[in-house]
Design a protein that fits this description.
By secondary structure, this protein is mainly α. The protein contains 7 helices and no strands. Helix 1 packs antiparallel against helix 4 and helix 5 packs antiparallel against helix 6.
Length: 185
């Protein structure tokens, strides 16, 4: 059961990184600093105060940057591979060290990185639609919703991991369904 919960936490945080890259990393760091979780075997750098200050600064900068009208769309394109990498890293950091590395990183890339990538691309399409229909005036609303979703999913993943994985699956279903409907499939 512990392995299942760890995977749920990792995928929940990965999903959160599809909305914002640094908030779930910061949440995982805070969980480590409060003793809720300790990273090991290659992820010890996420346990410390130095990581906290770096991730806090990066989170604030990322949140602020998404409120700049033209920069938000640029960031959506640039951030895709970084969101996938963050999702993969977060998933791998919660999977037991006893796993074969190829299996651990493969699962982290497919489940964590894939989830982050799908959510990030869905949010990017939503922002493009907002830009096209409102001339960018609606983008701060989208940004605020993404910030709230990233914080909410991060907290839920750490405190209620099974509920978080259910919410992630529902969200993925709606994003993928919407993409199919737009594509006419």
């Amino acid at each position: 059961m512990s392995l299942f919960i760890s995977i749920c936490i990792g995928i929940g945080l990965a999903a959160s990184s599809g909305f914002r890259i640094f908030i779930p990393l910061l949440a995982a760091n805070i969980a480590a600093l409060t003793g809720f979780h300790q990273f090991g075997n290659g992820f010890e750098w996420l346990n410390g105060w130095t990581a906290f200050y770096i991730l806090l600064t990066a989170s604030i900068a990322e949140i602020a940057a998404y409120y700049i009208p033209w920069l938000d769309n640029v960031l959506d394109h640039i951030a895709m591979p970084v969101a996938v990498a963050a999702g993969t890293l977060l998933s791998a950091s919660f999977i037991s060290a006893e796993w074969e590395p190829a299996l651990k990183w493969g699962l982290a890339l497919l489940a964590g990185g894939g989830t982050a990538g799908i959510i990030h691309s869905g949010m990017g399409l939503l922002r493009l639609g907002s830009t096209a229909t409102t001339g960018g005036l609606g983008n701060p609303v989208v940004t605020t919703a993404e910030n709230g979703a990233s914080i909410g999913f991060s907290v839920m993943a750490l405190l209620l991991p099974v509920l978080a994985i259910i919410a992630v699956l529902v969200l993925l279903f709606f994003i993928l369904r919407r993409k199919k409907l737009k594509a006419g499939i």
